Amino acid sequence: MSIITLTTDLGLKDHYVAAIKAQLLSQLPASQIVDISHEVQPFNLAEAAYYINNVFEDFPAGTVHFIGVDHLPHISIGDDNNLYPLVMKLKDQFFVGCDNGIFSLIKNFEQAEKIVRIDDFSAKQALRFPTRNIYIPTVIALSKGIDLNELGEEVTNIRKAFTTQPIVEKDLIKGTVIHEDKYGNVIVNISEKLFNEVGAGNPFTIYFKNSQYFIENISSNYHDVPTGEKLAIFNDDGFLEIAINKGVQGAGGGASSLLGLHSKDTIRIEFHPKGSKDNIEALFPQE
User: From the DSSP assignment, how many helices (H) and strands (E) are in the chain?
Assistant: First the structure.
């Protein structure tokens, strides 16, 4: 039984996702189709990579991942900026999508076993309907065990995409909100590893866009704080998460609404090393 995952920006309002699944099931009736997400913000490669990187290593060898985000190919003779459909084999799994930079955002893409450019556009109107005529036929072929060499020419260079990285200064990390989940929790591009390296165990304050809100400790789980209270936690993927305990829309609101945090907003973590001015003043509070 083949396993196929779908990550797209198609949404669920229209029939597009159903059409993809119908095409897959007509050729692979015993396949297992897993929806990673169809709610990726249109054309947002960083968000698509965030979803995929959080789950793909949990899938078994041979899984085929279709990435349908900003995936329209551009093929023109003599154009150095062509966007070809690609297949990347990484950790015994296959990723099918457009060479728009998404492959460079997949975790450990440098360790890819092989990358192949799909060059069969013989289907009528293939480039007009690439999902139906190029990508899904490729997913089906891979699921049936076709050799990568039969799909096209091997390539060694892929287009690079760049995402916002944390800024590190002395006793300071500036991060960016990269994702907001359905509960209103926001994920920041600050890893626990970076937090520990810069902070070295010193006290800290997490400041938000709205300066009246701040957090001075990392919780181990949501129930460390009362219902409706804000908290900071490192999630299963090792990234900083700002949340409201049981703060979902319709039940008081989540961190995004209550704290005014949204994608691309800045989060500051200021560390207070022992012996700093802040700590000295804290020892001798004013009367």
Answer: 7, 15
Q: For the purposes of burial, counting CB atoms within 10 Å of the CB of 92, is it exposed (0-12), middle (13-18) or buried (19 or more)? A: exposed
**What's the rounded Cα separation, in Å, for the pair 247 and 265?**
20
The proportion of the chain whose per-residue pLDDT surpasses 70, expressed as a percent, equals: 88
Structure tokens at 34: 């897993």
> What is this structure's pTM?
0.80
Q: Are residues 46 and 16 in the same domain?
A: yes
- Whether 12 and 114 share a structural domain: yes
Given a cut of 60, is residue 151 above it in pLDDT? Answer: yes
Write down which residue in 154, 187, 204 finishes a domain: 154
From the number of C-beta atoms within 10 Å of its C-beta (0-12, 13-18, 19+), residue 138 rates as buried
State both tokens at 161: 């995409």
The DSSP annotation for 212-228 comes to: T-EE-S-BSSGGGS-TT
CB 238 within 8 A of CB 226: no
Q: What is the C-alpha separation between 252 and 228, in angstroms, rounded?
A: 7
Q: Are 139 and 105 contained in the same domain?
A: yes
CB-based contacts of 257, cutoff 8 Å, min separation 6: 184, 249
pLDDT digits (tens, 9 = 90+) for 174-211: 999 988 888 888 999 999 999 999 999 999 999 987 66
Alpha-carbon distances of 151 from 101, 120, 171, 248, rounded to whole Å? 20, 8, 51, 46
Q: What DSSP character marks residue 170?
A: T
pLDDT in tens, 83-105: 889 999 999 999 999 999 999 99
Residues 6+ apart with CB under 8 A from 135: 66, 68, 71, 85, 96, 97
Give 261's contacts (C-beta < 8 A, 6+ positions apart): 177, 180, 186, 208, 209, 242, 255, 267
